[in-house]
Amino acid sequence: MPHFSKPSEGSWTEHFGIGTEPVSYEDSISPEHYELERDAIFRRAWLNVGRVEQLPRKGSYVTKELDAARTSVILVRDMDGEVRAYHNICRHRGNKLVWNDYPREETSGVCRQFTCKYHGWRYGLDGELTFVQQEPEFFDVDKSQFGLVPVNVDIWAGFIFVNLDREAQPLKEYMGRLGAGIEDYPFDLMTQKHTYRAEVGSNWKLFIDAFMEFYHAPVLHSKQAVEDESRKLQAVGFEALAYDIDGPHSMVSSWGGMAPPKDLNMVKPIERVLRSGLFGPWEGPDIGELPGGLNPARHKAWGEDSFLFFPNFMILIWKPNWYLTYHYWPTSYNTHVFECSLYFAPPKTAFERLQQELGVVSFKEYSLQDCNTLEATQTMLESRAVTEFPLCDQEIALRHLHKTAREWVADYQDRQPGSTPVRVSAAS
Predict the structure, then answer these.
(1) Domains of the chain, start order
(2) Residue 284's pLDDT is what?
């Protein structure tokens, strides 16, 4: 049962019953545990790999590298307009089927068929094998048995997801109550997209930790505010408006994003001129009534809601009517690729474009500040000089994330016949 205002007694963490004792971060520094996560989480959970706008016409395709899941996938809109997904592998000798100059880089384009660069085998957009070079040289090969290997694919609110588990629950069911609460948001109207990408020297969960609490904001980001406002923030601290947990997913609702701020002296001169900043343009598009899943506390100072859809997909929806996404793609136990995409309604004037650009560069600066602490955290966690860490009530989503990840691994191990589970110690 969600709780939309701060509990009158106790805490958010106690309300959701996930423990209050210090936690272990062994799940973020163990190579053995990461190898288990690859199979237990990234080959079993629904993973967001793009949006429908990336496949605008029949024959449009994109590839997505899923290193943690040990594969690469092709997403394509077939000749019937249906979105399909396949493992990016030729059925002849296992060559990666779709790539350009560098096989580890993602690519996109439009085509009528896929042709292997190695021996020229061809596949239709429906995945069927249509041509075998020198077919008589093979031993009664039945082309109908050698089509591309399909991957479960489904769409939620315009977001394309894949799941490598053939017995996965339906996507809509997986997205749960939190997904249902925002699926009517007009994501399809926000098609002006800005993306940046970083290779980060930390476990994937540690960067999620950085974005699912605002306890750090008055300290880590203090120099981004004007001096007087910085002092106020550090003196008062930060407390979110509401938290919620639903199955493996979580959310935090926050104040901020007032447009315009009550006092223009609170912000920098360029923000006053462009009427924009970290929270995006002050005057966003009119999109009508917001979905019921936003601003659950119904607080007048509400600014944004951050949703974490397990394992690695975050949506942040802002009061001035724009949104951004975060993805955290593991590449090893202590490295991952971070992707951030900011979505706005297409600008109608040069001034609106500049407003959006200021929001983009401001967010990049804040993200770099968050990212800057991660390698320092990773290296010292790996020292194991300290093995248990206290978390405050504002860090409830962090506690829930690590607890959920450990539970998925434990469940996977329990399902393996004859296996001896290797448990990662945890105090929560």
Answers:
(1) 12-25+177-411 (3.90.380.10), 47-159 (2.102.10.10)
(2) 87
